[in-house]
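Q: How would the structure tokens look for this protein?
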Amino acid sequence: MSILKITLIGLSLSSSLLNAEFLSVQVKKTVLRDKPSFLGKSIAKLSYADQVESAATQNDWSKVKTIKGESIGWVHSSALINKTIILSSRGKLTNSSVSQSEVLMAGKGFNKEVESAYKKKNAKLDFTLVNKIERANAVSAKRLISFAKNGKLSI
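A: Here is the predicted structure in token form.
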């Protein structure tokens, strides 16, 4: 192969890497799917801080390639962030776009304290119906696991 061909191939590869958008998984676990749908077949599992290369987008879905290049598929965009997340060997965040406390708060979700603060900021809102729905739709963990297994859902 001539030097010119090798140079052209090298330039082509480096320009595609320069234009590539790398994303990090910002949720504990997510699934890489064969189509942009939660009903798509699972291709691979991705974990928090895994990096992927963006290939395309469709509605709320991103077509991505794993960094090792072994899998290409679709991930819901809400599971991705356009920042690098680095975990140290002790499982602590280092040189990251998010702090350790932000990760801990994200894991807590919408709890009593968050709800109380939200109610204070939105005193005119009526939460009666929300509370009624929460009570009516309470499902035990045992029933939820049974539902997921019967429906062959990954949990």
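DSSP finds five helices and seven strands in the chain.

The chain has two domains: 3-98, 110-155.

Upvote if useful.
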